[in-house]
Input
Amino acid sequence: MVSSRALRTPREHPIGPWLVAIGAGLWGTEIAWRLPLNDVFDPDVLVFWEHVIMVVCALPLILPRLGELRRVSARALGWLVFSGVAGSAVGAIFLNLAFKHGNPTVVSVVLNVQPVLSTTAAWLLFGDRLAKRFYPWALVAVIAGMVLAGMWKGLSIDAGVGYALVCALFWGLSTVAGRGVMVEMTMPLAAGLRVVVGLVAMAVILAARSKLGGDLLWPAAAAADATRVVTWLVLLATLSGGVPLLIYFKGLELTRASTAGYFEMMQTLVSVVISWWFFHNALTWYEVIAAVVLVGAVAMVQREQERTALPYVAASA
Output
């Protein structure tokens, strides 16, 4: 059993940011399932079904660990609720709205402001220390991500951009809140409870909008091709949802939020590759260069942040 003292000891490890990157990269695969599902469900209904599947998968992780909650502070539980509502539920709704009403490429561009938001929040709330060379490499990472998403073509301010900005805000704050949870709670329980909170939040939202039944919850388009729709939902909730969430939370346990935000930009890289593979949007030479620069920049972010990192403390039994 993990001691309460160990759970409350901040821990950092060099592998942490790369686990965040892997989790974020797997999140990037969601575009393959989310775009066609957006044509079937309303954005909030789609997020609800995602959470139903993720909670079912997470129950074996949650139930044996509920005893840990006796050692968790009210502050950490507050961070957990905020992370689940802001990141898992509300942020996902605005992501679906952004893809539904905007250009997916432009949406990816706007989401690159998330690390700036999470870094600012981590500095304000947790007093994260930033290395002197953190800022230039972080800027290179942001620019590379924007090039990957096609910012050089120009941005048009529309509903999709607005929704993406709100999504980036909620996700950035959720990254910081997730770090507040992970210093007191083991990864499987934190990740599982986050989706439970998200499901409860989505149920409340749908109930308030009178969508918890009938054709609004399972429209005719879903019933007409149920096998394909269910397959897409399962892939979205597992391969692009639950699995990366576990990896992401493990990385967040070993990483400061100010660093994690930039490694989450790997989602942009994977989204570009998926877009090329599934939707036949070929990568140009400058996009390939931008991808290499992005990988190198986040590596330098890690290197510079290690100069101010706290010593790694392994959790004792």
The chain has one domain: 4-308. The two ends are 5 Å apart (CA to CA). Residues 16 and 72 are 22 Å apart (CA to CA).
